[in-house]
Amino acid sequence: MTLPPRMRRLTPPSIAAAVTVAMLTACGASGPGGNPEATNEPTDGYPRTVEHFLGSTEIPAAPERVLPLDAAYVDSTLALGGNVVGFTTFAEDVTSLPEYLVNSDWNVGTSDEAVPVGLLWDLDPELVASTDPDLILSAQVRHGDGYEQFSEVAPTVMSETTGATWKENLVLTGAALDAEEEAGRLVTEFEERAAALGEAIVEANGGEAPTVSVARFAGDAEGVRLYTPKSYIGVILEDLGLEPGPGVETEAEDIVTYHSQERLLDLDAEYIFVATYDDGGADGVQESKEEYMSAPLWSELEGGITEVNDEYWISGVGLIAAHAVLDDVAEIFDVDPQR
């Protein structure tokens, strides 16, 4: 099973609408008016039918073994108290979930049995089946081609994409785990924390929101990546109320723009956050980064440059990862983390 290396950018719907749809979907499994007695259905919320991007999936009983095939759904499953039994990786030598995810205060689930089932873009069907899941979660942009195969293994729910839609994906996970209200509460809690943190940063900055940019070295031939407001990290920065740097293309439809050595000044802002994809030395990412950082224009950047953790600033795409970003931001700006 394969998938394209780059994720498409899609505009996320409103969180409130997503919560409403998820709750109506869950109620639909209990008969007219959401009354379980109307059809003699169990009162524990199952069976339930979840509407998702690729169709309609019936989940017969409360999932006890969840197989999330994308980082966004590993994150959301753990945030909602689910049991993760498998996960995909970006490198073949990865055998465990990242530390920031496992040890987070926002992780209320379990992952003691979790094992890798292959690379994100090259799953091992036998490993997938060996986890004996009773629910599979992913996105069409990741694994849509395998939807029918996965559905033969376990009830499968897929969003359209990941990244900027991480809040909607949390709500979708809630629909599958009978945790719609908790998913909505977690979204509200995050947004309130981000807003309070942003206000503290503005106050510490003399009453004005500082400008920020997020760049990533990932070995791209097109150049260093600069993240737009349409990305996962862009959504977090927007929730914080921080201003994009002048070189950030705020009207761009893609989640990133690419900048050659001749366009390095586009990265400039009062605060420049730099992430680096860990390729294990295989794809020349570190060499490319060193080349760019030794280019003449790099030394002309005026903003303060801070190296950040690529695992959750860029790849995490979920609630737990987003809270880890807020922790870093509070430390960088030396303000109360609002935890």
From TrEMBL:
CDD domains for the chain: FhuD (cd01146)
Q: Does the keyword Signal apply?
A: yes
Q: Where does the secretion signal sit in this chain?
A: 1-28
InterPro entries for this protein:
ABC_transptr_periplasmic_BD, Bact_iron-sidero_bind
Q: Which UniProt keywords apply?
A: Signal, Transport
Q: What is its main location?
A: other
Record flagged with keyword Transport? yes
Do you know which Gene3D superfamilies this protein is assigned to?
Nitrogenase molybdenum iron protein domain
* PROSITE patterns registered for this protein in UniProt: FE_B12_PBP, PROKAR_LIPOPROTEIN
Kindly list the places in or outside the cell where this protein is found, as annotated in its UniProt entry: Cell envelope
Fe/B12 periplasmic-binding domain location is 65-337
Q: Name one Pfam family in it.
A: Peripla_BP_2
What the record says about family reads: Belongs to the bacterial solute-binding protein 8 family.
Q: Can you name this protein?
A: Iron-siderophore ABC transporter substrate-binding protein
Tell me the organism.
Nocardiopsis lambiniae
